[in-house]
Every structure is written in structure tokens, then in C-alpha cells.
Amino acid sequence: MPEIIPIGADHAGFELKERLKQELAALGYEPLDLGTHSADSTDYPDYAHPVASQVEGGQVRRGVLLCGTGLGMAYAANRHPGVRAAVAWTPEVAKLARAHNDANVLVLPARFVTEQEGIEILRTWLATPFEGGRHQRRVQKIEP
Fold first, then answer.
1. What gap in Å lies between CA 133 and CA 127, rounded to an integer?
2. Which residues lie across from 5 on neighbouring strands?
3. Is 67 among the residues known to form the active site?
4. Is residue 100 among the annotated active site residues?
5. What are the structural domains of the chain?
């Protein structure tokens, strides 16, 4: 059974979300689109919370969010215990977010990455394992 990956975006991330859903499916994942479903203006928390809730509750291992800068989505998602949402604007940042911080939600700044950059960031994040070791100790200190 393919891994389900919930994905959500506000209006600024809508177009890139649509493309990343295709990429997830092509890579063998099952994207779960939690909205938005058009480019009409929306509020990012309305999409961040449902994705983060699924990660927090253990229904899924990881999720993807998109908004203009990525910041609003990250702020909202990181309010959920156990969620480590990381804004990544390059594949290198995505790799380090996974390897060193065990980021379980990828947040893309849709207004600052091209479609191809977004795809590469997603692929890198999906393929990078958490290194554990000294990083595990640090990740454990995140939760109060």
C-alpha cells in the first residue's frame, strides 16, 4: 500500500500543489489533497491545521504544505505537538531538514521557487532519511 501524504495549500500555493500531487503519484505515493481547490483567496491556517493534525495524530508519517512564503504554514503547523514543519527553498535545505531535524512536514514557499525547484525540493525531502545519532538528542529537546 502506498504511503499517504496529505498536501495542502492556500491560494498562493495552489498551482504548485497541483503539480506536486502529480509528482507524488508518479513517485508511488498517494497524495491526499486537503485543499485549497482553486486560486481564490483563502487563509493558510485552514489548510495547515488539517495536514498537521494528521501527522500529529499518527494517521500519516509526513505531509506537505505550500503558501506564498511558507512562513504562515510553518507557524500554524508547528503549533501541533510532534510536528516539525520546515520551510525549504532549496534541495540542500530540504535534505538538512530531514537528515538533521527529522522534519515531518515540508513547507514550500510557492512564490519563491519555480515548479522544477519545487519538484527537486520535494524529491530530496522524500528520499532523505533522518540520521539520528546526535541529531536525535536535539530533536527530543524540541518538545517541552
1. 19
2. 31
3. yes
4. yes
5. 4-140 (3.40.1400.10)
Q: What is the pTM of this model?
A: 0.97
Helix/strand/coil for 66 = strand
Catalytic residue among 11, 37, 49, 67: 67
Cβ distance 131 to 96 under 8 Å?
A: no
End-to-end, the C-alpha distance of the chain in Å comes to: 34
Q: Give the CA distances from residue 55 to residues 7, 19, 64, 99, in Å, rounded to whole numbers and listed in that order.
A: 11, 22, 10, 18
pLDDT digits 0-9 by tens, 35-67: 999 999 999 999 999 999 999 999 999 999 999
Q: How many distinct helices (H) and strands (E) make up the chain?
A: 6, 5
Q: Which of 11, 37, 49, 100 is catalytic?
A: 100
